[in-house]
Amino acid sequence: MRGKIRGKGEKSLLKGNAKAAKTRKNNRSISEDFTLVCRGIREFNKILPGQMRHVLFKSILSACIPLVAVFASAWILNELAGEWRKERLLFLCLFAVVTTFVLSALKYVQDAKVAVGYSCLFSAHEICLTQKNHRLPYEILEMTETERLREQVSGSISVSGAGMASLYWDMETVIKNLLRVTASILLGAGFIRALFTARNMAGETGGGGIFFAGLVFLSGTCVYISCKMAGKHFITSFEVFKEGAKYQRYGEFYTMNYLKDENAAMDARIFSQEGIILRESQEKCYQRFAEGKRREIRALDRYDGVRLFFTCFSGILVYVLVGWMALLGKICAGEVVAAYAAVTMFISALSELSEIITDLRNNNEHLLNFFRFVDLPEDLNGVGDNTEKGNTGMVEKEHDFKGIQFDHVSFRYPESEDFALCDINFSVRAGEKLAFVGENGSGKTTLVKLICRLYRPTQGRILLDGVDIWSYPHEEYKKRLSVVFQDFSLFAFSIAENVAASNTYDKKLVEHALEAAGLLEKVSRLPEGVNQPLFHYFCEDGCDLSGGEAQKLAIARAIYKDGDIMVLDEPTAALDPFAEADIYKHFGAMSEGKTAFLVSHRLSSCQNCDRVAVFFAGRLVQLGSHKELVLQEGKEYARLWEAQAQYYR
């Protein structure tokens, strides 16, 4: 699975993926591209339900408003050239004005809704991707390729307005021009009939056919040129922005994250790093964007120049053709206007339609990345709602908890060929305190994530009271866990909301958890106590915590949850010796009646545990009490203990 993530529907749509990544249109047929566009519309409707309706209405109105002017002008000219009936002229003028006003007002409303939808699209798009992230198996979420794929999907819309954003605008152009092509054919039907029946000065027919052939040739040429130029412009644009997300990441990191970060600012000042930081952001981001933008503008200028030439040339030809028909008396004054509008509208709409279809096919490059991401396999047993059902072995939290068994558990990361854990086999009794120790990379944190069901074992099972933990509904199993991760997160909520992980909480239990974690005295001195907001992102009166205080707050969160199983991964890494001693002094009270797993590099903490599991290179090499293991000279635990103890003698 290394370096490979495949969407579930991609094989049915595309063949030859290796070659596809190197070609402009991925070797896709028009029908395959049409299928991708249709799926894009369905996915768009999931992101912004009902928004495409407004695009449809706006497109219809945009196509109809010019037609009202064309028809009204033709009818008025015919009336002026004929009977001059004042009542009819007044009616036609009023009809044109009122209809145009009503349609324009409706279009204005739809314009506003489409614009609002576009402004909402970017945040809704990111929310959709974030929700997908939450449903991914954790081991896939951690993969480098998953991160890059998410980055490409986000970057395509935020940097270049491609993907779903381009589909949004392109669909408006497609619908509008399909209607314009249809209307121009209906509008010009009489003109085409007159063209084929027209006679030249010698009284012979056939001249009109030549003009019609020239018109068809001109239309085809305009369509071909539009497709070619639009394709070339896209190639240039795609080459510029395909790495746009990476460039943007460089720029944001160096200028907005790194330089403004107060911790990084210390290093930047002491080691005079400002110059190299700015140079990196210029070379890796802004200069590449500027050069790419210049190339894109040059390609666009060439495209606009060619299109302007053919527009002028087609306009001249249409004037000659319509004038010739008028001189022959085959069309009246009003029909001159309608005929000219029909021919120019047909050529313009067909050119725009061919251009936008080319753009849609090219935009599928970006949509495919989106589909690959949303098609990543989801962990239906790892996340979900309360309605999930396990197997018949499922039991309620209130039952008599007996223990956990690791049944020949092995785990390998998706991007690795080596096992991070190999054949882990031991049992833990209910209420037992077990410490995990070992060198960095020995598999301790990986085992913690397996217990928390963030990872699924590659081989073997973890049994809770004889039942595979993956057989329990996610919400039920999650209630059993009180966890402090090594890399924990706090949020810009109140202290109480951080402790309870909810906006509803029991204040007495919050204070009890803070007291057990040794943080209540500090919190009590704050102006708003447990209701004091953290950080200054949203509240000017928010408070900042030191590293040790933040770790105590994370411990308080685990205490408040009161799960059957307590997992502490380096819970005192940021604490001073007094605070650490205080935490371990109360460790027994905090974990009373609970099964506790403690990961620590400070082996003195292992004396507070019933047993110690020693890991080396992904294997369980020793298991016993601290007193038993420290006496086993030459073995891993004694070696680790001696490495620390020698400095305290």
Provide structural commentary.
The protein is of the alpha/beta class and 649 residues long. It has three domains: 28-374, ABC transporter transmembrane region fold (Up-down Bundle); 403-490 and 566-648, 3-Layer(aba) Sandwich (Rossmann fold), CATH 3.40.50.300; 491-544, no CATH class. It has helices at residues 10-13, 17-20, 30-47, 51-81, 86-135, 138-141, 144-158, 164-197, 207-241, 244-258, 262-270, 274-327, 333-374, 444-451, 474-479, 495-500, 507-516, 520-524, 547-561, 577-585, 587-590, 626-630, 636-645, and strands at 403-411, 421-429, 433-438, 459-464, 467-468, 481-484, 565-569, 595-599, 611-616, 619-624. A hairpin with a 2-residue loop joins strand 4 (459-464) and strand 5 (467-468). Helix 8 (164-197) packs antiparallel against helix 13 (333-374). The protein is elongated. The protein starts with 9 loop residues before the first helix and ends with a helix. Mean pLDDT is 78; it is low at 1-24, 200-206 and 383-398.
Largest sheet: 6 strands, mixed
Number of domains: 3
CATH architecture of the largest domain: Up-down Bundle
User: In angstroms, what separates the terminal alpha carbons?
Assistant: 50 Å
Number of helices: 23
Question: What number is the mean pLDDT?
Answer: 78
CATH topology of the largest domain: ABC transporter transmembrane region fold
Work out the radius of gyration: 35 Å
Fourth CATH level, the homologous superfamily of the largest domain: ABC transporter type 1, transmembrane domain
> What are the low-pLDDT stretches, counting only 5+ consecutive residues below 50?
1-24, 200-206, 383-398
